[in-house]
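the two lines:
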Amino acid sequence: MSQIYEAMVLLDNDVVRQGYDSAKHVVTDTLKKYDANVHACRRWDERRLAYPILRKNRATYFLSYFEMPGDRIPAFRRDLELNERVLRYMLVAVDALPEGEAEQARAEDGADFTVPPPPEDDAIELVAEPTSELVDEEVDEEEMLMLDDKED
Amino acid sequence: MAPRKVRAVIGSKNCDDPKIDYKNIQYLEKFLTPQGQILSRRRTGFCTQCQRQLKQAIKRARHVGLLPFVV
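prediction for all of em together
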């Protein structure tokens, strides 16, 4: 028995920069491989991540709705986990296709749709190590000996 | 005994709030402390089911990097 699922897939922006269609095919081809009935697949957003994932600070989110028998889901999950272009994914079972999703996906497939390119750099900003102003005091050995003599 | 302080309730009392979704980040952020913790039902004003939906949505948003675990 088939169930409708919602998949949110985070793709590496380097893949999206190489070509939006090829990036989208990462998701759609995986779905086709498991004979999923795809209702909608579209770019949800490109945004900064709340925390770095696989040393990336930004990612492109793809949202797709598809129908698939439950017994194929473990293999589908495994395929996404092994895919190096996928930073992270999430599968959620939904009751029905949300309103407007199919229209939005169709609009994206249209010829006049242009994808805004992701920003240049999405690597983690390296935080400069704090420079310590405290310099280790070099203690002169002779000075130490003199202090010892005084104590005696 | 001093009366208990009544704090402002953030959420609505309506159950099955359609806005509770892991993709609706601006809405979910209202129910987080500045440190990123989920507010209690006493503060959100949600019923048991809605609070559970809120928790689920926030945890899903955290998983896909839309919300931070800790600020």
